[in-house]
Amino acid sequence: MPTGVHLRDVRQQLFHAAERVLLRDGPNALTSRAVTAEADVAKGVLHRHFADFDAFLAELVQDRITRLRDQAAILEASAGTRTVASNLVDALTELFDPVSVALTSLVFIRDELRTRLRRPGDGDGLPFLTEAREMLSSYLKAERAQGRIAPDADADSLSLSLIGASHLLFAGRQRHTLPEEAELKNLIHTITADVVQRRLW
C-alpha cells in the first residue's frame, strides 16, 4: 500500500491535471480519462483513490473551498486597512481566478456534484459561491464594526450583490482573459458607494 505522503502526492497530481484540463478545454471536457491522461498515469489510478469520478470532483472543489477559508481569514483581518474598495478588488480578483471560475461552471452543470458539496442548511445556494459570499459578508461585518461602512449596512445582501455581479464580470469573458481592474473597481464602487458614503452620517 502506498504511504500517506505518496497518496497525497497522487491526489494533488490528479487535482492539478484536472485544473489544467478545465483551463484548456472547459468543464465539458473534464472526464476521468482526460484527467488520468493529463496526469500521465494509468486509467485505474483515479478510481483506486476515489470512490467514483463525482467523488474526485467533489474533493477537487472542496480543496478549493479550503483555500477559500484561508483567504477569508486574511480578508477579515484586513478590515480597517487601506480602503474597503481596495480590499474587495484584491479579494474578488483572487476569488475568481480562472480555475475557480471553471470550477463554478462545473458545479453548476453537474447535479450530483452539487448535491455532494452542499452542506446542511445551504438550501439552494451554489457550493463555492456560498462560501465566497460568507467570506465577503464576514469581512463587511468587520468593516461595519469599525465604522467604515454604515451601521445599518446589510452585509449579507451586499456580499450577494458583489459575488453575483463579479462572477458575471469574470465568467462572461473569453477564456484566459481577465476584466480590467478599473472595470472591477467601478462595479465595487457602484455596489458599495451608499454604505461607504453614509458611514459618517
Explain this structure.
The protein has 201 residues and is mainly alpha-helical. 71% of the residues lie in helices and 0% in strands. The protein is built from ten helices and no strands. It is elongated. The N and C termini lie far apart (65 Å).
Provide keyphrases for this structure.
mainly alpha, 201 residues, 10 helices, Tetracycline Repressor, domain 2, 2 domains, Arc Repressor Mutant, subunit A
Rounded radius of gyration (Å): 19 Å
- The secondary-structure class comes to mainly alpha
Number of strands: 0
The CATH architecture of the largest domain can be named as Orthogonal Bundle
Could you tell me the strand content as a percent range? under 5%
Instruction: Assign the CATH topology of the largest domain.
Output: Tetracycline Repressor, domain 2
At the first level of CATH, what is the class of the largest domain?
A: Mainly Alpha
Number of domains: 2
What is the element layout, followed by pairings?
Layout: H1 4-25, H2 32-39, H3 45-49, H4 53-77, H5 84-95, H6 98-109, H7 111-117, H8 129-145, H9 155-171, H10 181-197
Helix pairs in contact: 1-2, 1-6, 4-7, 4-8, 5-8, 5-10, 8-9, 9-10
Entry summary:
With 201 residues, this protein is mostly helical. It has helices at residues 4-25, 32-39, 45-49, 53-77, 84-95, 98-109, 111-117, 129-145, 155-171, 181-197.
